[in-house]
Design goal:
alpha+beta, about 500 residues, four-stranded mixed beta sheet, single chain, three-stranded antiparallel beta sheet, 19 helices
Length: about 500
């Protein structure tokens, strides 16, 4: 009798689960929306955990849905998700109807994971208030203030590469560039000299790498937290790894306490945040920004690290990968750098770096072909009637924008596999749709640290190209294979290139 009851219960649960999932997978069909047929239990994420990078999974879906309407439907597990395929529709999401799509839907649990409460993840009014506090710390004047710190690290970078170039050595440039950006961010965000160029196994470097390394299980955990945030918070689940959180919280507490006790001031991001934390305003501005807590300071320093470390090093890696294969473009870039340096007496002044227009075109084309953040996520905050259609996007629905697919769309960028910085002359940019290039997002939630990221990338490329030439070698990954274990675009197995002096 008991066995029969257990059997009936198990069968009932399985049958109920089957019909629940089947009903969920009919969501887009019932609404007449073109969609990609989901596969149980992961939906569109059926390729996750394999050698396929998420960018390729979403790009395939984009191609299948393109031309069938302003968007199509996909599923993350059993949750329906909007996949936009029309740039005019993106204009509504990012700007015109921003009030419906102002949140990213990123998991937050400040009680158990204080570092999750950063600008990238916060929602609604809290995001707006914090954005207002942080925007003054990313003005061109503040970037200029940090420029000398970046240049000092860039000189160490040049010196570190010199013996390798003299020996025409084959090097894994991705790791070296990650150490370069680690030293910059360590200085600017945390006020410490990491020296990871000279000592690659420092604790800061080791913990920094952990932030971006994910097993297939951890990827699924991330998606679970995004799909079921309330359940995650009830279970007191954390987004960040405990070792990572403990390290950065301890580091920032010790650094801020030491600076306050000894009245130390530096030209870095942490100093600006401490001014806001202590006084509610910046020293050179009387605007009342409102004070922030130490936990808020820690979370913003942490996201500054995330936003500036891996993204910039990967961008430089992909840029050098393309330049190694296109020596004519590399020669033109080097010629520009040397010409500008001659004008400024060999010094990488802030003004000199701002004149590197062709370097900027190379960076933008690199981010077009290899967007580090391959997707952008938004959440619909209330029922939204899609303009010029009968569709309604329901409250709580995720919107996933495939930046990679848009940047590789031949209707937007002809011959998209070709690396061509000429796409980003002022004239050619004006001829394209304003939402055709999205490596930093768009609208009010565009990346607040975009200026800083571009600045350190520009300096890194210019300092290398002025003295050295990069070439392909037998270990260079041609064609490119993206690492499916990274949550940002990164070459699988690193990036091997040959370095020579010029």
């Amino acid at each position: 009798m008991i066995l029969n009851l257990i059997f009936v219960t198990i069968v009932s649960v399985i049958v109920s689960g089957y019909f629940y999932v089947k009903n969920k997978y009919r969501y887009w069909e019932d609404r007449g929306v073109p969609y990609v047929k989901p596969k149980f239990p992961f939906g569109i994420l059926k390729g996750m955990g394999s050698d396929r990078h998420p960018s390729q999974i979403f790009s395939d879906a984009y191609k299948e849905l393109k031309g069938k309407g302003p968007f199509g439907g996909v599923h993350f597990f059993v949750r329906p998700v909007v996949l936009p395929t029309d740039l005019d529709f993106l204009r509504h999401i990012f700007v015109k109807d921003f009030q419906y799509f102002h949140d990213r839907g990123v998991y937050i649990n400040e009680r158990d994971d204080p570092l999750s409460g950063h600008l990238f993840s916060l929602t609604g009014q809290r995001w707006k208030n914090l954005r207002n506090k942080l925007s003054p710390t990313f003005t061109s004047g503040k970037m200029k203030m940090m420029h000398n710190t970046i240049i000092a690290v860039a000189k160490e970078f040049q010196n570190y590469l010199e013996p390798m170039a003299k020996n025409n050595q084959e090097i894994e440039i991705k790791d070296i560039l990650s150490r370069f950006t680690t030293d910059i961010i360590g200085n600017c965000a945390f006020g410490i000299e990491c020296n990871s160029l000279k000592e690659p196994d420092t604790e800061f470097r080791r913990i920094g790498k952990k932030v971006f390394e994910f097993t297939p299980f951890e990827f699924l955990r991330m998606f679970f937290l995004a799909m079921f945030p309330d359940l995650g918070r009830t279970l007191r689940m954390k987004f960040n790894k405990p070792e990572v959180s403990e390290f950065f919280m301890r580091l920032l507490r010790e650094t801020t306490e030491y600076r306050q006790k000894n009245n130390i001031k530096r030209n870095d991001f942490l100093s600006l945040l401490m001014q806001i934390m202590n006084k509610g305003k910046l020293d050179d501005d009387d605007t009342d920004l409102g004070k922030m807590t130490f936990e808020e300071l820690a979370a913003q320093s942490f996201i500054f690290f995330i936003g500036g470390y891996e993204t910039s090093s990967s961008t430089m890696t992909f840029a050098l990968y393309e330049l190694a294969q296109h020596q004519d473009i590399q020669d033109r870039a080097r010629e520009e750098v040397n010409k500008v340096l001659e004008k400024y007496n060999g010094e990488y002044t802030y003004e000199a770096c701002m004149e590197l227009k062709y370097i900027d075109q190379i960076i933008k084309e690199t981010l077009r072909k290899h967007p580090i953040a391959e997707s952008l996520i938004r959440t619909c905050s209330q029922d939204y009637s899609v303009p010029d259609t009968n569709y309604v996007i329901e409250k709580g629905t995720f919107v996933s924008i495939s930046v990679f697919a848009i940047h590789r769309d031949p209707e937007i960028y002809p011959d998209p596999e070709k690396f061509d910085p000429e796409r980003f002359t002022d004239e050619n940019i004006k001829q394209r749709h304003p939402f055709a290039w999205l490596p930093f997002g768009e609208g009010p939630r565009i990346c607040v640290g975009m200026r800083f990221g571009m600045m350190q990338t520009r300096v890194g490329l210019a300092s290398l190209l002025s003295k050295y030439r990069v070439k392909t070698c037998p270990k260079t990954p041609i064609p490119m294979v993206y690492d499916p274990t990274k949550n940002v675009m990164s070459p699988k197995g690193g990036m091997w290139l040959k370095l020579e002096t010029v």
